[in-house]
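hey
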C-alpha cells in the first residue's frame, strides 16, 4: 500500500464507506494490471522474431519486463487484499 494516492475521499468517509472505496480502488487496480499483462503478452508475441539493433537482444525480452511487473502487481494486491492499513501510517493532519 505504498503507492501514491489521494486519500481525501477516504478521510471524509466513515469506516464502512472507506472500506468500499478501498475495495473499488483495489478491484480497479487488479483489473488494470491484468489488462496490462494481456497487452504485454500480445506485444511480446508480435515482436518474438524481431531483434533490437542497439541492444542486440530479442525485443520480446525487453517487453517481458512489462508483463512481469503487471503480473507481480496483480498478485501482490490479491495477496494483500484484506490486509489492514499500517498502524504507523497516519493521515496528514493538514488535510
Amino acid at each position: 500500500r505504498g503507492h501514491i494516492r489521494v486519500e481525501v475521499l477516504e478521510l471524509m468517509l466513515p469506516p464502512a464507506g472507506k472500506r468500499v472505496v478501498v475495495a473499488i480502488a483495489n478491484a480497479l487496480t487488479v483489473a488494470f494490471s491484468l489488462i496490462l499483462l494481456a497487452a504485454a503478452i500480445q506485444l511480446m508475441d508480435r515482436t518474438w522474431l524481431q531483434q533490437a539493433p542497439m541492444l542486440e537482444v530479442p525485443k520480446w525480452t525487453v517487453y517481458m519486463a512489462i508483463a512481469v511487473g503487471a503480473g507481480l502487481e496483480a498478485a501482490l494486491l490479491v495477496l494483500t487484499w484484506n490486509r489492514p492499513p499500517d498502524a504507523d501510517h497516519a493521515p496528514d493532519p493538514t488535510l
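The CA atoms of residues 49 and 58 lie 7 Å apart. The longest helix spans residues 15-46.
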